[in-house]
Amino acid sequence: MDKSWIDMSRNPPQYMDGLNKFLDFAFVNSGVRGKIVCPCQKCNFNKWQDRELVYEHLILKPFPKGYTMWFLHRERKGVNVTNETCVMPQEDNEINSANNPMFDMVNDAFGYHQYSNDTVDDKEMGPESSHARNDDIGDFVELMQDGQESLYERCDKYSKLSFLIKLYHIKCLCKISDKGMSMILELLADAFEHAKIPRSFYETKKIINKLGLHYTKIDACPNDCMLYFGEDANREFCKKCKTSNWKAKRKCTIGATSNKRKKILAKVLRYFPLKPRLQRMFMSSKIAEHMRWHSSGSTNEVILRHPRDSKAWKTFDFKHPQFASDPRNVRLGLATDGFNPYGNLSTSYSIWPVVLIPYNLPPWMCMKQSSFILSMIIPGKRAPRNDIDVYLQPLIEELKELWNTSIKTFDLYGSEVFDMYAAILWTISDFPGLGTLYGWNTHTGLACPRCNFDTTPKKLIKGGKFCFMSHRRWLDGRHKFRLARIRFDGTIENRNPPLAISGYDVLQQVQNLNVEFGKEPLLEERAKRQQGVNHAKLDTQQ
Amino acid sequence: MHIEKNVCDNVVSTLLNDSSNKCKDNLKARKDLQLWGNRPDLWPNENGRYLPAIYTLTNANKDIFLKTLKNITVPDGYSSNISRCIDVKQRKLGGLKSQDSHVLMEQILTFCVLDKE
User: Fold this and answer.
1) Which of A278, A356, A520, B16 to pair with B35, CA 20 to 30 A apart?
2) Are B32 and A490 in contact (CB < 8 Å)?
3) Minimal-distance CA residue of chain A relative to B39
4) Yes or no, beta carbons of A461 and B32 under 8 Å apart
């Protein structure tokens, strides 16, 4: 079929002819009760319209330029279109294809609503993003085809994609292992030969992976000295401790095979880029509307029901009016804590997941697990402690970019492209975790980060603990306890409470500090034992 | 939750002066007072002996305190049956859940201690 008319302007008769041919084709192959999915810019392949309306729409608005393979109107490769028998329109069929949630999902994931927009958007978004989109289109088309393909012949209920996604959902809910899934899939594929079920879980994952957002692996020094990131990406040895980023090869008894063995990285940080995740929030039809809840949602001055009612939030708005002017700018919270993934308390292993919380969402959404953004997984054995700064580098870099220079984002709710900024408002952690994130030592006498240096700790020599006896400073100026010497530590308390320390003060304190990252290398078990033997030998010699 | 439970444990065992490590009125604390040079009436002597503090209960007082606790009945679902957690013979309190610690600290302890005077 000649499809050159798609690129033409909408005036000449060739366009009209082509359009009529398209409509004939579409109504024969995918018409349900005299309606088809309208491909015009406004309906976006979402609405079902009758012939006259579609014709009108496609005269008023251009036919989507890239849509030359009409897979949404049941065009198949290599199938002789004219001879194809018309599928009997059934009620089930209509319901399925009209409200297919799978299509919505795929559309949301790829921001398909953008593709049919004018090319002006492309220019706005910059050359990089449009290039990236071209790459995505392949995935999108494949997914759409999978979504269109029925599981077996004359199956109206499930397409290949929806079946796999439902199976995957069950896997996630019931925590079935990958191996278990492979075995189930093998059985299904064996039992139902005519169904299009992939043979292994690996292939299923390959299909579903296209829907997800990807992460990057960044090598790290095993002693937490540095990240092989940015300029240092191609290094092989650590700048500071000269350790290789590969694991030391084990001595192999069979010499020949040792060379063939794949190298293993010593430590890998898994980083989940923030920008595409924020962009997807605005692309998703279910979330985009809620991303401005904090300014539009009903307010009640008395009740604190969302961080936006708090003083910190309002102060932030006051200080950064430009940021606050657009409610779509994202405010984030950062939470981190160590945990042992092996569930065995006797093994000491702690990885530190870093989670970002989008506070733009309403309270019933923002603290749900499904809206958290996992930002990175800091690998373990040992907790990062102060060296967490090394691992946070990629996140901080991205956040700096999101604060200083915005990124263009398509907002589905307002259906426009806007400049998105993002900021971190606060961090959430337990007290030792605060020490890790803030870099303030939370263990000795000067443990309180708020009092800073303005506190008088006292070590109880016999008890072996620190005590903080300056608590009378918070009392009213003329309180009788301030004068009570004997009841407390034998002094009269005249001081006022310590002044709250501001960000500027902290910067002043930290500015000239020279922090060296990295830890002493961990000895392996064998080395430890060896060391023990050496010590024993020395002892006997002496 | 944890902090409240810990404080409750410390307060109760300090009141009952049981010799477990929960009791904060111990020899080390008294020695620290001496090093501090404060409250000479509480200092221990050379043999490590010290006089009871003003808040330490005598055995008779402990019995009154525990009996009061033993007689308490609470509405259903309010807290666990606290009278079951009390061992009057050994003068001990044990097996409290953290919710019970909260109830004890907030409400019950106030009038139990008042009873002493």
Assistant:
1) B16
2) no
3) A486
4) yes
Which residues of chain B neighbour A462 with C-beta distances below 8 Å?
A: 28-29, 31-32, 35
Q: Where are the alpha helices (DSSP H) in A70-159?
A: 91-98, 101-110, 112-115, 119-148
CB contact under 8 A, B32 and A486: no
Taking CA–CA distances from B37, the nearest residue in chain A reads A490
Say how far apart CA A490 and CA A483 lie, in whole Å: 9
Name the phi and psi angles at A50, rounded to 5. -85, 175
Whole-angstrom Cα distance, residue B91 to residue A252? 65
Q: How does pLDDT run along chain A (542 residues), one tens digit per residue?
A: 677 778 778 878 888 888 888 888 888 777 777 778 888 877 777 777 888 888 888 888 888 777 777 777 767 654 443 333 333 333 333 334 445 677 777 777 776 554 444 333 444 444 444 445 556 677 777 787 777 788 888 888 888 888 888 999 999 999 999 999 999 999 999 999 888 888 889 989 888 888 888 899 999 999 999 999 888 888 888 888 888 888 877 665 555 555 667 888 889 999 999 999 999 899 888 889 899 899 887 777 788 889 999 999 999 999 999 999 999 999 999 999 998 888 776 778 899 999 999 999 999 998 999 899 999 999 988 889 899 999 999 999 999 999 999 899 888 888 889 999 999 999 999 999 999 998 888 888 899 888 888 888 989 999 898 988 889 999 998 999 999 988 888 889 999 999 988 889 999 988 888 888 988 887 777 777 777 666 666 666 65
CA–CA distance, A116 with A438 (Å, rounded to integer): 46
Task: Give this complex's ipTM.
Answer: 0.77
CA distance A39 to A23: 11
Residue spans of the domains in chain A: they are 1-99, 101-212, 244-249+263-298+305-438, 457-499
Cross-chain Cβ contact A462/B32 below 8 Å: yes
Longest dimension (CA), chain B: 52
Between β-strands A48-50 and A35-37, what pairing exists: parallel, antiparallel or unpaired? antiparallel
Mark which residues 1-40 of B lie under 8 Å from A by CB: 28-29, 31-32, 35-39
What is the side-by-side order of every strand in the sheet holding A216-219? A216-219, A268-271, A373-378, A352-358, A330-336, A422-428
Q: Across-strand partners of A334?
A: A356, A427
Count the neighbouring beta carbons within 10 Å of the beta carbon of residue A337.
16
Contact A462 B31 (CB under 8 A): yes
Q: Can you tell me whether residue B49 is helix, strand or coil?
A: coil
Question: What one-letter code names the amino acid at A10?
Answer: R
Q: Where are the beta strands (DSSP E) in A212-297?
A: 216-219, 268-271
Joined tokens for residue A425? 């408002």
User: Which residue in A423, A424, A468 sits closest to A450, CA to CA?
Assistant: A468
Q: Is A61 helix (H, G, I), strand (E, B) or coil?
A: coil
